[in-house]
Design brief:
Distance between the termini: 23 Å
Protein name: Glucose dehydrogenase
CATH architecture: 6 Propeller
Number of strands: 24
CATH topology: Neuraminidase
Number of domains: 1
InterPro entries: 6-blade_b-propeller_TolB-like (IPR011042), Glc/Sorbosone_DH (IPR012938), Quinoprot_gluc/sorb_DH_b-prop (IPR011041)
Strand content: 35-45%
Radius of gyration: 20 Å
Pfam families: GSDH (PF07995)
Helix content: under 10%
Largest sheet: 4 strands, antiparallel
Domain Glucose/Sorbosone dehydrogenase: 54-383
Order of helices and strands: HHEEEEEEHEEEEEEEEEEEEEEEEEE
Structural class: mainly beta
CATH class: Mainly Beta
Amino acid sequence: MHARLLTTIAVALLSACSPGNGSSAPADSQAADLTAGAAVTDGRPFVVSELARFDKPWAMAFLPGDGRLLVTEMNGTLKLLEPGGKSIDVSGVPEVDAGGQGGLGDVVAHPDFARNKLVYLSYAEAGDHDTRGAAVARAKLVVDNQGGARLADLKVLWRQVPKVQGRGHFGHRIAFGPDGHLWISSGERQKFDPAQDMQSNLGKIVRLNADGSVPADNPFADQGGVAAQVWSLGHRNPLGIAFNAKGELWEVEMGPKGGDELNRIERGANYGYPIVSNGDHYDGRPIPDHDTQPQFSAPAISWTPVISPSDMIFYSGDKFPAWQGDALISGLSSNALVRVVFDDQGAHEAERFDMGARIREVEQGPDGDIYLLEDGPKGRLLRLAPPAA
């Protein structure tokens, strides 16, 4: 997507995303002020522009090369935003079990999307006896000549095992690695012990081939079953996974009462939850810290008070050259965008920007600007761009 197309989206979406097409429109006066270019406040090195609003948005994905943006809403709606500003509801989305922290979740494009038009979705699906679990499906995005869009040939590639009761800690972020493997973060579903149970893929980071099959070189492949999917274990609610320029996988997850974590993900490593954590249980019961049991991998950073991380990227664009190689983490309870830097001494929080609302996702646009999705009803799609010279 070129900068010109993204600028077109920035202006046109303000009128395109209205109650008539399933999204709530921003107030006209606010939209006009934002698109004109908000003043830089509190020393922030960016201008914030509002592009659209959605009903409980969860994720977004820029489609390579064609100037379009996919946005998921937790209620099960998938939006396709055209370069001219038109908003299309994409049909053929799998049935989701929406409620609590569950619903339609992540969306990513296949690395070869320009040729195969494949997109990947995560979502909560219902099971028997009031149970549910996350799933990941693949489908072809078809846009017809009449302006409609649908998902075709949808196939479920992965499911959380087992399905359990409750509506929390699905995780289910998706990423493609530099070698084309499919990575999925799987929360422990607020059940604690499954994070250490290799008969379950809850509380794990999962590595698959792009078609959902299990790579033969996974660390636990010889155990078979769901254990063969697992790359790392001992996670609570991993809500951000991203690769840096070196090809290293990093993950950010919500801790319990304290102890949010940023981890470098290593092959076969155990990150200790719920045996160790730098936070405690919500009922006040203590959990031993990581440094009491060094056989478990300790986080590069832990946060107490928590930031409630929801997503992360590594910035590689030209618009914010001082941030190249840094991690940007979106925060829910912290209402923040958190910048993390890396050096010979490890990882360190460098800056925290108060965004005034819970932030559900952060993405880098093809233009090098930074895009945020706010959490909740009328959640805004925001663009962060450098101030005009």
